[in-house]
């Protein structure tokens, strides 16, 4: 079974390292008959496109975190192409109630148009790791989050609670991971 997809991801350095949602690179194959199962392999033939350009760049998965739903890809050969990634090296922390923003792109069918999302910090969580709860136009895992001045404050990840715990245990929900 072959499946094509166009997940969105973010360039995070000038060497061609890209961050996105791991779930976007994991095939979601199901059959109506529960007695039929599939063996799913790793994604092959990964190609990167920059906005509306036609040139494709080969890439490979170099790391992934299934607990945070993050994947990292490396473009294998940029050639003469110069790229600039989002600088995620700061330590800018948001506060509860703060308005934040995401920037992504719509699908190719919608001209890869840039899209702005707005969200708010609703909580600070310390366990299983420090992160900020959010609501609003969140976007997917791997999307950088920015403050009003355009400085990144973190990255959206999907975090699952502990299964079997009352409340929202076992259910994944979006959070902002700190940059550090």
Describe the structure.
This protein is mostly beta strands and 180 residues long. The protein contains no helices and eleven strands. The strands form two sheets. It has a six-stranded antiparallel barrel. A five-stranded antiparallel sheet has the order 1-2-5-4-3, with no helix packed on it. A hairpin with an 8-residue loop joins strand 6 (99-105) and strand 7. The termini are far apart.
Strand order across the largest sheet: 6-7-8-11-10-9
Uncertain stretches of 5 or more adjacent residues: none
> Helicity level, as a percent range?
under 10%
Structural class: mainly beta
Instruction: Give average pLDDT, whole number.
Output: 84
Q: Report strand %.
A: 35-45%
What's the total number of strands? 11
Could you describe the largest sheet, including whether it forms a barrel?
Answer: 6 strands, antiparallel, barrel
Order of helices and strands: EEEEEEEEEEE
Regarding quaternary structure, what we see is single chain
Rounded radius of gyration (Å): 17 Å
Shape: globular
Question: How far is the N terminus from the C terminus?
Answer: 39 Å
Count of discrete alpha- or pi-helical segments spanning 4 or more residues:
0
Name the features.
180 residues; mainly beta; 6-stranded antiparallel barrel; 5-stranded antiparallel beta sheet; 11 strands
Secondary-structure map with pairings?
Layout: E1 9-11, E2 17-21, E3 46-48, E4 57-65, E5 70-75, E6 99-105, E7 114-125, E8 131-136, E9 144-146, E10 152-160, E11 172-178
Antiparallel strand pairs: 1-2, 2-5, 3-4, 4-5, 6-7, 6-9, 7-8, 8-11, 9-10, 10-11
């Amino acid at each position: 079974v072959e499946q094509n997809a166009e997940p969105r991801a973010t360039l995070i350095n000038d060497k061609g390292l890209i961050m996105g949602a791991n779930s976007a690179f994991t095939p979601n194959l199901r059959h109506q008959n529960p007695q039929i199962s599939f063996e799913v392999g790793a994604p092959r033939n990964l190609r990167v496109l920059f906005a509306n350009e036609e040139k494709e760049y080969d890439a490979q998965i170099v790391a992934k975190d299934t607990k945070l739903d993050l994947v990292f890809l490396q473009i294998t050969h940029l050639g003469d192409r110069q790229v600039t990634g989002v600088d995620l090296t700061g330590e800018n922390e948001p506060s509860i109630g703060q308005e934040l923003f995401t920037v992504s792109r719509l699908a190719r069918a919608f001209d890869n148009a840039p899209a702005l999302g707005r969200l708010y910090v609703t909580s600070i969580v310390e366990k299983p790791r420090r992160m900020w709860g959010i609501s609003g136009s969140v976007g997917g895992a791997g999307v950088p989050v920015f403050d009003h001045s355009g400085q990144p404050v973190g990255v959206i990840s999907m975090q699952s609670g502990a299964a079997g715990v009352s409340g929202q245990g076992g259910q994944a929900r979006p959070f902002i991971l700190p940059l550090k």
